[in-house]
């Protein structure tokens, strides 16, 4: 009956409303699933009249609906896209196919059209490493392509368990939980914290990644955005709440678009002082910092972690009981950058991991990553943990490029990390610079525009890898210099004349020293102790809640 009515009148809201009135009027005395009557004749007449009136009303409503104009969906979409084109924030994708056996080379649409990639987040080039690829091939042959379901339904397997154990070991936490991406991990964890702690107050750095911003929004709790790396402002905000109020400080270690670095130790000090939890995103730091590639938190106590290997140091570099990494409550990271794979994770205490596993929709209701992806990530983590030379060579190549740009007056936003952000300051010019590099010099560097960065701070983001030799670096340096001349882009002296921006040409700006010291850069793989294990680390038992 219902199908024939919808076929006749159309599925409009007015029709549905009329049908609801029809069903209500047709049985005005419905009780216990049956229609009651006060007299057979009267009931029959009433029902017939009501049905006729309702049908007429439905027909009239449907006729009115067909005369109304529908919402202009395409007009809205076209308008929004046109706005992005006009303000130069429209995103254009380059067809870049990175070559496993020739990286950092890639080909464009035609295989003969090769370019050198200078903006990949595959920081250590592990996506092409033979050990990583071999692990993935073997796992595909054994377990196939997909995981087969969510973790709860057919998606929990040996590669998953081993990967979470590796991640827990890397960050020296009791457990870890893998997500489909770190965007999902950040959103899932932050939103859950707010949903379960209604009085929670979140303190977020203004340059936090979009995934953290979205997670905090979904948390639906009170929040404060503090100026980037401004710990004085952060403390003022924290001290305005009683210690009994639940608090969370959300921040990153390396901020990917500017290369700035958080003072993790001081933030932990503030968290202890005011009773706050800490949430640290190490996405752009894992693999690149610390003796074993656990990130900036590990790098803060470099010598203690280097000497202790996988084991938890008895003291930090200052002789205190806990290391900086120990003090951070939650660390999120990615498998898709330095580890050359895909996916994200959170490492934390056993109870927190079990809590996320049990309540986070972003974990519960999505298919598990393929076993081969997990196996590749495991191989990458194990390899990089024992190969300090990957990190040191990446740092040397970064320093080489930064120094050359400095000597040429090419404006690099100053930072102590591996990111080389070349300031352009104009969206249209940034795209033109990127286009000239790829079309004239066969160098791929993507322009970074709004909303990834603020308008007026557009830039080229360059990321050297261990595979970018000095010869390739010289080609890049000359090409960028040529582009600056061709487009007459502002150099450091020009920014100085304008008062400076983001540390470029700013009077009195003090540049931070590189995170890697000269003594750390002189270390070799033989200086690591990767086989020193801590018998009290229980990540194999507690990861994923396998054993309680």
Automatic annotation (TrEMBL):
Pathway: Porphyrin-containing compound metabolism; protoporphyrin-IX biosynthesis; 5-aminolevulinate from glycine: step 1/1. PROSITE patterns: AA_TRANSFER_CLASS_2. Signal peptide: none annotated. Its cofactor is pyridoxal 5'-phosphate. This is 5-aminolevulinate synthase. It comes from Saccharomyces mikatae IFO 1815. The lineage of its organism: Eukaryota, Fungi, Dikarya, Ascomycota, Saccharomycotina. GO terms for cellular component: mitochondrial matrix. Gene3D superfamilies: Aspartate Aminotransferase, domain 1, Type I PLP-dependent aspartate aminotransferase-like (Major domain). InterPro entries: 4pyrrol_synth_NH2levulA_synth, Aminotrans_II_pyridoxalP_BS, Aminotransferase_I/II_large, AON_synthase_class-II, PyrdxlP-dep_Trfase, PyrdxlP-dep_Trfase_major, PyrdxlP-dep_Trfase_small. It catalyses: succinyl-CoA + glycine + H(+) = 5-aminolevulinate + CO2 + CoA. The gene is SMKI04G4410. One of its GO terms (biological process) is protoporphyrinogen IX biosynthetic process.
């Amino acid at each position: 009956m219902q199908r024939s009515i919808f076929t006749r009148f159309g599925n409009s809201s007015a029709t549905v409303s009329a049908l609801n009135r029809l069903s209500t009027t047709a049985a005005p005395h419905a009780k216990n699933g049956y229609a009651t009557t006060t007299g057979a004749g009267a009931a029959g007449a009433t029902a017939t009249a009501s049905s006729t009136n309702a049908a007429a009303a439905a027909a009239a409503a449907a006729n009115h609906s067909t005369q109304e104009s529908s919402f202009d969906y395409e007009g809205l979409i076209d308008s929004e896209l046109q706005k992005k084109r006009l303000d130069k924030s429209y995103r254009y994708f380059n067809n870049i196919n990175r070559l496993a056996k020739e990286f950092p080379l890639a080909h464009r649409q035609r295989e003969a059209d090769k370019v050198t990639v200078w903006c990949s987040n595959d920081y250590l080039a592990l996506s092409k490493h033979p050990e990583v690829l071999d692990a993935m091939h073997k796992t595909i042959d054994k377990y196939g392509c997909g995981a087969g379901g969510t973790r709860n339904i057919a998606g929990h397997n040996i590669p998953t368990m081993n990967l979470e154990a590796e991640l827990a070991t890397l960050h020296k936490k009791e457990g870890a939980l893998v997500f489909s991406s770190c965007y999902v991990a950040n959103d899932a964890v932050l939103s859950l914290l707010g949903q379960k702690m209604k009085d929670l107050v979140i303190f977020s750095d203004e340059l936090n990644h979009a995934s953290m911003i979205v997670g905090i929004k979904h948390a639906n709790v009170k929040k404060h955005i503090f100026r980037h790396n401004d710990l004085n402002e952060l403390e003022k905000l924290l001290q305005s709440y009683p210690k009994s109020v639940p608090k969370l400080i959300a921040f990153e270690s390396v901020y990917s678009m500017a290369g700035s670095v958080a003072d993790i130790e001081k933030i932990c000090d503030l968290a202890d002082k005011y009773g706050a939890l800490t949430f640290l995103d190490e996405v752009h730091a894992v693999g690149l910092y610390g003796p074993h590639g656990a990130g900036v938190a590990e790098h803060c106590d470099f010598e203690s972690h280097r000497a202790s290997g996988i084991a938890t140091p008895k003291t930090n570099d200052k002789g205190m009981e806990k290391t900086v990494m120990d003090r951070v409550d939650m660390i999120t990271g990615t498998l898709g950058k330095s580890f050359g794979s895909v996916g994200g994770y959170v490492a934390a205490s056993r109870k927190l991991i079990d809590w996320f596993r049990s309540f986070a929709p972003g974990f519960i209701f999505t298919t598990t990553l393929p076993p081969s992806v997990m196996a590749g990530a495991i191989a990458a983590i194990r390899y990089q943990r024992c190969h300090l030379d990957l990190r040191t060579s990446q740092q040397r190549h970064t320093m080489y490029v930064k120094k050359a740009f400095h000597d040429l007056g090419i404006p690099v936003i100053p930072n102590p990390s591996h990111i080389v952000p070349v300031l352009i300051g104009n969206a249209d010019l940034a795209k033109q610079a990127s286009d000239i590099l790829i079309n004239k010099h066969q160098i791929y560097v993507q322009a970074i525009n709004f909303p990834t960065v603020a308008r007026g701070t557009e830039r080229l983001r360059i990321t050297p890898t261990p595979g970018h030799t000095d010869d390739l670096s010289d080609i890049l340096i000359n090409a960028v210099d040529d582009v600056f001349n061709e487009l007459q882009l502002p150099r450091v002296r020009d920014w100085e004349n304008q008062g400076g921006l983001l540390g470029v040409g700013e009077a009195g700006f003090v540049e931070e020293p590189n995170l890697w010291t000269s003594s750390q850069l002189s270390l070799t793989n033989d200086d690591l102790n990767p086989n020193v294990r801590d018998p009290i680390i229980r990540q194999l038992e507690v990861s994923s809640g396998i054993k309680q």
